[in-house]
Amino acid sequence: MWKRTFSCVFMDSLYNKSSLKWGKTMSYRFELNVEKDEFNQFVENHEYCNLLQSYQWANVKQNWDHYHTGVYENGTLVATGLVLIKVLPMNFTMFYLPRGPIMDYKNEELLQFYFKELKKVAKKRHCLFIKFDPAIHVNDYKSSEYNTSRYEDCSFYLEEFKRLGAKHHGFTMKIEDTIQPRFQSNVYACQDIEQMLPKHTRRLIKDADKRNVKIIEGKKECLDEFSRLVSLTEERKQVSLRNKDYFTLLMDEYPEGGVIFLAQCNLYQLSKEAHRKYDETKKEIENTPENAKKKLRRLNEQIQSIEKDIKEFDEMLAEFSDKDQDVSIAGILSIQFGNTCEMLYAGMDERFKKFMPQYKEYVENFKWAFDRGCIYSNMGGVEGTLDDGLTKFKDNFNPTINEFIGEFDLPVNKLLFKISLKAYEKMKKRIKS
To answer: Which residue spans traverse the membrane (predicted)?
Structure first.
């Protein structure tokens, strides 16, 4: 990785009623390789803080080259950008800044300077275009408050990016239309998350409690079980997610912020408890006089319910293990970065769907994030129509929908840009299919 510094000076004129005064000289310096601690400290404390713009994310994206770019103003870091570089056929490249760069987008001079200098670097790397999807929110709203006239407030940013020469992909609606989802379902911090949940969600958590579902929090020691659960989800949904090596990499790169939650239950104990309740209820029926019809009806209904549970638990015991041990039935891998939490991957054993483990473990994840000072816990992308299965499931946690401004392409090689964009879209569709 080569290193080079670019610099430029902007003069800022300040006007007052009595006279025209020149303000201090502002010196911008472009840096290709900002040091890790300084880079992360800036990103973590910025309003656009995002895991995908953390220093370590470059190591996670192992099949991309990268730069950790930055701009200094009079010696102070004022902008950063993790630039991922995809090598294309014929030695061409594509630059991509996921949810970046991180800067004050209202500072026109800074914005122009950053991309002007980045384009110089891009040309040397035979880059066809620079793709970026800044973490600028178009709107935030509840699913039930969905509205269509919400783009007026972002016109300023669209004009700024247009001045750069960047092409906006528009306000896309499908997850597959962009690299990062333009809509995401997000739970914001509150004092009592359980009280903020819909009634039916609290009821589902009680169902999990009745089956003695417990949530354990761990690190790399949970990777085997978590990977197994993700693979089960892959098989069920006919999708390709990630494997243990990738999850290990995430936990290695974020040793402090990475966490795995596993929902577990003990089938042996559940069966044992059900048999005990059955015997007790049977005895109570035997000792209940025949004229106590109401009580007998209630007890017989209990017997039917317990018999159903016994059948369910015993069938599972025969399939899994009759040992007195905990079984992992669902899991989540999340990463805290700065004051944000990203719930990146989840898996579940569908055979335990009735145990409602995901509802309980999601809430535990929220509590964990908020206790660590996170302002939100992001459950990931949803379709812009808000009528898909992902949205309906995530709506169980009373989330806010974050709608982002979308994706932009800044041509570097104008001659080949249109052709390369078509080739890129074809490649993207092929990879997703």
So the answer is: none
Contacts 24+ apart (CB under 8 A), 273-282: 274/306, 274/309, 274/310, 274/313, 275/310, 277/302, 277/306, 278/303, 278/306, 278/307, 278/310, 281/306
Q: pLDDT at residue 24 above 50?
A: no
Q: What is the DSSP string of 207-271?
A: HHHHTT-EEEEESGGGHHHHHHHHHHHHHHHT-----HHHHHHHHHH-TTTEEEEEEEE-HHHHH
Alpha carbon distance 127, 417 (integer Å) = 10
Q: What SS3 class is residue 165?
A: coil
Residue 388 burial (CB count, 10 A) = 14
Cα torsion at 192, 194, 199, 205 (round to 10°)?
-170
356: left (phi over 0), alpha (psi -120 to 50) or beta: left
Contacts of residue 260, defined as CB under 8 A and 6 or more positions apart, other chains included, come to 217, 218, 219, 222, 223, 226, 251, 331, 332, 333, 334
DSSP one-letter string for 69-132: EEEEETTEEEEEEEEEEEE-GGG-EEEEETT--BS-TT-HHHHHHHHHHHHHHHHHTTEEEEEE
Whether pLDDT at 7 is above 80: no
CA distance 212 to 34: 49
Q: State the pTM of this model.
A: 0.87
| Residue 381, SS3 per DSSP | strand
Number of residues assigned to the chain: 433
Long-range contacts of 268-274 (CB under 8 A, 24+ apart): 268/317, 268/321, 268/322, 268/323, 268/324, 268/325, 269/212, 269/324, 270/211, 270/212, 270/309, 270/313, 271/310, 271/313, 271/314, 271/317, 274/306, 274/309, 274/310, 274/313
How far apart (Å, rounded) are the C-alpha atoms in residues 328 and 263? 6
How confident is the model over 296-345, as pLDDT tens digits?
899 889 899 889 888 888 888 888 767 788 999 999 999 999 999 999 99
- What separation in angstroms does the CA of 142 have from each of 164, 298, 303? 33, 42, 43
**Nearest to residue 99, comparing CAs of 342, 334, 389?**
342
Alpha-carbon distance of 80 to 101, in angstroms, equals 6
Nearest one of 405, 410, 394, 414 to 185, comparing CA atoms: 394
Query: Is there a cis peptide before residue 411, judged by omega within 30 degrees of 0?
Result: no
Q: What type of residue is 328?
A: S
Dihedrals φ, ψ of 209, to 5°?
-65, -35
